[in-house]
Specification:
Blueprint: E1 4-7, H1 14-24, E2 30-34, H2 36-39, E3 46-49, H3 55-69, E4 72-76, E5 80-82, H4 86-98, E6 105-112, E7 142-144, E8 151-155, H5 156-159, H6 170-180, E9 184-194, H7 204-218, H8 220-227
Parallel strand pairs: 1-2, 1-4, 2-3, 6-9
Antiparallel strand pairs: 4-8, 5-9, 6-8, 7-9
Helix pairs in contact: 7-8
Length: 229
């Protein structure tokens, strides 16, 4: 049993996500954060009312509440749908990674159909063909420098102080901070369907411009490396 932490703004698609958890992972307590008018009608182990701020602060709030009660959790976007074995495969891979004594696991993230290339099942990094609708490499765990916690496992110790107060690049910053603390990130064989940018939108320039002042002030070395400044 492991809690699933969700933060939402508009709640679009939330009912479908919660129903998929009910059907495929009913043993998982759900910690749900969002405006009262949006989440009050949904069943959850714990409802945490709060007005939207940004991805980082909103998820820090709900994850922080869960980690008061648990030593680890799964972080979930509000615009995903679980498959019957999403949680099962993710947690099996976590157990395998824990046997790798030379690494400290940071994020262990599921694959998706709308994610950065390393997690995206539409993209393969190897010369391979589809086999029963999947690339064979999807069945394997792999390491990654950055992952998106669309549906991802994290421990209390690794999560630490949490995400920066950003919409874009909050996951990139947290992943890099964890690497600097000696953690490694992994992409699991687990899969979830992801609508993609359903909450924060598709205005990439606006989201980038909003994040840059914080990055330049607080992580200038990341900004210089990522954007060739």
């Amino acid at each position: 049993m492991i809690p699933i932490c969700i933060s939402t703004v508009h709640g679009k698609g939330l009912a479908v996500l919660l129903e998929s958890i009910k059907q495929y992972a009913p043993e998982c307590p759900v910690y749900l954060r969002g405006p009262q008018a949006v989440i009050e009608q949904h069943q959850a182990f714990l409802k945490i009312y709060g007005q939207p701020s940004n991805f980082g602060d909103d998820y820090n709030h709900v994850i922080g509440e869960a980690l008061k009660d648990w030593n680890d959790c799964i972080v979930a976007n509000d615009d995903i749908v679980l498959t019957p074995d999403s949680v099962k495969l993710l947690m099996e891979d976590v157990q395998i990674i824990k046997t790798m004594h030379s690494v400290r696991a940071g994020w262990v993230a599921s694959r998706s159909d709308a994610a950065r290339p390393g997690q995206n099942v539409r993209i393969t990094e190897q010369p391979e063909r589809l086999h029963f609708y999947k690339f064979p490499s999807e069945a394997h765990i792999k390491m990654a420098e950055e992952v998106s916690p669309i549906f991802a496992y994290i421990t209390k110790d690794a999560f630490g102080e949490g995400f920066p107060p950003l919409n874009w690049y909050s996951d990139d910053v947290h992943c890099r901070d964890l690497i600097n603390r000696g953690y490694s990130h992994f992409i699991s064989s687990s899969y979830v369907h992801h609508i993609g940018s359903h909450t924060i939108g598709f205005d990439a320039k606006r989201l980038h411009d909003q994040a840059m002042p914080w990055l330049l002030e607080n992580r200038p070395e990341y900004a210089k490396a990522w954007f060739d400044l």
